[in-house]
Amino acid sequence: MPHDHRISGFTASFHVITCSSTRTVDNDDSGRGIIDVIRGKGHRISGYEIVDDDIELIRRAVISGLETSDAVIITGGTGITSRDVTVEAVRGIADYEMIGFSHVFALVSFQKIGSSAIMSRSTAFIVKRKPVFCLPGSPEGSILAVSTLILEQIDHIHHELGR
Questions:
Q1: What is the CATH number of domain 13-161?
Q2: What is the distance between the alpha carbons of residues 125 and 73, in angstroms, rounded to a whole number?
Q3: Most CB atoms closer than 10 Å: which of 48, 54, 86, 151?
């Protein structure tokens, strides 16, 4: 049986970024879904924004979001199209990558959607001693990651990064 590392009563603040050249506040089901799940579990939203699929815009949004939050969650830009640059943007400012996140998320995704999971490049990084999660743009995929992985471990991640 796994050891429970959760910290009782920890409330995290999240900055949510949607990377898309087509989404707006009115049609951003992924961003809204992530926010709803986070709030539903008693955590806070410190900011929300939509940025274009542009490496420099993504980097600026992440760095700004980290100033007021415990973690940043990005939805979109993790696929294999020519516009998907979220992973490259964050990798360029990251201290290191949390490889385990991408492995476990691939497994969870495969269990839900089958072999289409191989097209996801979702991962997580540590930037300025805080986690930055790069999730799919689909509402189902991003909400799956938030509800089954991120919110289950955010207190432990926060604890370990503070050591």
A1: 3.40.980.10
A2: 11
A3: 86
